[in-house]
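Table 4 source record.
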Amino acid sequence: WYPQNKTGAAFYAASLINKIYEKLRDKIEIHLFVNKYSKVEFNSHDDIKLHYVIGPLKLVQFYEQYYLSKVINRVHLDIMHFPYYTYYGKIKAKTIYSALDLYYMYDKNCLPNNRSIFYWLHIFMKNLKNADLIVSISESTKNDIIKFIPNINKSKINVLYPIVDERYRPLLNLSRRKETINKFNLNRPYLLSIGDSTVKRKNIRQLIIGYKKAVDLGYIFDLVLVGIFNDRELRILINEYKMTDKVHIFGYTHENDM
């Protein structure tokens, strides 16, 4: 499955589905639940059963969340995995919940999708408590879960670091590496950041501020920002720091170049 939404969470979910399919397709039955406006593309995955959660476009999030448990229960699953922040009601299947990060608990301005802190405290946190297994992508996220839900069963939290796709592993082909570096005119060592600057919890602003402090201390390296970048305030900040020659904004970049 290749997600139309090229976010980290979408690729995480897609990679997980592809690997499960590759390893277990002859042993288990796989179901994928999406809203009817999602565009999914399968690569020879015709035997994955696709379920659409129907709802009006303007209220798609509400309908998706309200009816999701009803749709899931009709299928009589053994295990249901939620790869991202998803509200669900009472589900008969065993549930696995992936926790990516809880940065919004430190800064309510970073809440995704303009949801209120009530949503996260009373719904998302409840889902974590009720899950049979929690997959945390880092020790830091695991510690945050324990911090904000002190009475949670710690034994059900498992740290599982996301695997690095083969495309993003170190290039052994030196000529290909040189070609890419020359293409982007990177003449100094650099720190690479991948993320949408418009998503506040990506914390690109603090990254730029921290980078400025490192440069002032005498460290010599560039900052490379890959991903959607249309934040005018961040561009103003970079200009104020007089670092336009050190901060490279490349926007969307093809996976092969990354």
